[in-house]
Amino acid sequence: MPDDAIVEVREVGKTYEGGVEALRNVNLGFPRGRLSTLLGPSGCGKTTLLKIIAGLIKPNAGEVWVKGRKVELVVYDDRLTPSESESGVHFLSRVSEIIDALDAEGRLRRQRRKD
């Protein structure tokens, strides 16, 4: 793990009901102030890992630390506006929040300043 990791994933595993193993013994760190990516084929567990980091689903094994705090399961309410989970991971909770911010050509609208 990087010494300056803002996110640390330690021995994380996730098996869904029905026996589908999405993650096994995952260890990685995302360095503070650096852009990081997760690459892999469809179905390899990228989204599952991101949901665990955000505290949206619970792993079967291991733990995740964000900003020095252990991530615990967050009760998710889709009526929320864009927010920060207890883990400190930012996420958008409703697709409509994204759509409302786009113009007809799919670009982000600029908000007008109210002076």
Structure notes:
- The structure is a single chain.
- This protein is α+β, with helices and mostly antiparallel strands and 115 residues long.
- The protein has a domain at 5-74: Rossmann fold (3-Layer(aba) Sandwich).
- The chain has helices at residues 46-54, 95-100; strands spanning 5-15, 21-31, 61-66, 69-70, 83-84, 90-91.
- It has a four-stranded antiparallel β-sheet with strand order 2-1-3-4, with helices on one face. A two-stranded antiparallel sheet has the order 5-6.
- It is globular, with a radius of gyration of 17 Å.
Task: Give a topology summary.
Elements: E1 5-15, E2 21-31, H1 46-54, E3 61-66, E4 69-70, E5 83-84, E6 90-91, H2 95-100
What's this, in brief?
The protein has 115 residues and is of the alpha+beta class. Helices cover 13% and strands 30% of the residues. The longest helix is centred in the middle third of the chain and has 9 residues, at 46-54.
Which features characterize this protein?
single chain; 115 residues; alpha+beta; Rossmann fold; four-stranded antiparallel β-sheet; two-stranded antiparallel ribbon; 30% strand
Q: Helices and strands: which structural class? A: alpha+beta
Helix content: 10-25%
CATH architecture of the domain at 5-74: 3-Layer(aba) Sandwich
Q: What is the CATH topology classification name of the domain at 5-74?
A: Rossmann fold
What is the tally of helical segments?
2
Low-confidence stretches: 79-86, 92-97
Query: Which strands sit side by side, in order, in the main sheet?
Result: 2-1-3-4
Name given to the CATH homologous superfamily of the domain at 5-74: P-loop containing nucleotide triphosphate hydrolases
Mean pLDDT: 76
